[in-house]
Amino acid sequence: MIKFFAPAWGNTLPFDRFCQNVKAAGYDGVEIAVPLDVAEKIAILESLAKHGLELIGQYFQSFETDLDEHARNYEKYLRHLSSAKPLFINCQTGKDFFTFEQNRRLFELADRISSETGVKIIHETHRGKALFAAHITRDYLQKLPNLRLALDISHWCAVHESMLENQDEAVKLAIRHTDHIHSRVGHPEGPQVSDPRAPEWAAFLEAHLAWWDQVMATHLENQTVLTVTTEFGPAPYLPTLPYTQMPVVSQWDVNVFMLNLLKNRYSGKDVSGSSC
Questions:
Q1: Which pairing describes strands 29-32 and 226-229: parallel, antiparallel, or unpaired?
Q2: What is the pLDDT of residues 146-205, one digit of tens each?
Q3: What is the pLDDT of residues 121-157, one digit of tens each?
Q4: Under DSSP, is residue 72 helix (H, G, I), strand (E, B) or coil?
Q5: Cβ 4 vs Cβ 26: under 8 Å
Q6: Could you give the dihedral angle defined by the CA atoms of residues 189, 195, 196 and 200, in that order, rounded to the nearest 10 degrees?
Q7: What angle do CA 25, 92, 140 make, to 5 degrees?
Q8: What is the DSSP string of 170-183?
Q9: Are the C-beta atoms of residues 201 and 185 closer than 8 Å to each other?
Q10: Among 66, 102, 113, 241, which one is most buried in terms of CB atoms within 10 A?
């Protein structure tokens, strides 16, 4: 089985209207960093329930350079997200300048919170965070084999300024540890192409599809559910025109394109490998 989630990142509509559009487009849920404000949290959960949408909790607030302060805020947000009872939490854990042992402390903290709350916590491959590069992630996975990933491989294309031709073993290992995909298409000079529908980006789209196909094959073999968030982001991830700063394309349209592309690509497949 495969489930698709819309990113709340970039949404400017009232959240209930956004949920209505998400449901109508054919998504199964929303990935969102649930705010700490109690009233806002309740309103979000009510809108999701009203429209029959599932929740993936998102954590990205890894800003503090002092590890003790960082760990306190990390735990605060993860416990807050856990209380919303999401399908799981996707974390942008740690910092690229923390040592292995410093980031390991955060991964172990996440494991403890997950055990205590019963909410699964996975970790995103993201620039600036612990898992910012393919070879670094390989090292973490070899030393912490229970680590599970949200694979946003577009970041690695930018970090390594390549399509990862020389990172094959690291990519294969990451794929085997992937539970969730952010289906953004990157390239050697950035984490997001301007429009994946444009012919000049076709080779980069195909490279990402090949990686995602491998993730899907692993989940079919293991009979596990794969989740995908079509996370093309807003400006400045999305390129803009000079002077006016107008986006060159609609973020929503691009994400719905990715939703339908992947639905069509993986239609007829379930976790047993038989026709749906």
A1: unpaired
A2: 999 999 999 999 999 999 999 999 999 999 999 999 999 999 999 999 999 999 999 999
A3: 999 999 999 999 999 999 999 999 999 999 999 999 9
A4: helix
A5: yes
A6: -70
A7: 125
A8: HHHHHHHTEEEEE-
A9: yes
A10: 113
Cα–Cα distance between 95 and 81 in angstroms, integer?
20
* Three-state DSSP state, 262: helix
Full DSSP string of 150-202: EE-THHHHHHHTSSSTT-HHHHHHHHHTEEEEE----BTTBSS-S-TTSGGGH
Paired strand residues for 29: 5, 54
pLDDT at 66 over 60: yes
Say if residues 3 and 225 touch (Cβ distance below 8 Å).
yes
Please write the tens of the pLDDT for every residue from 215-255: 999 999 999 999 999 999 999 999 999 999 999 999 999 99
Q: Which of 196, 201, 203 is nearest to 261 (CA)?
A: 196
SS3 state of residue 89: strand
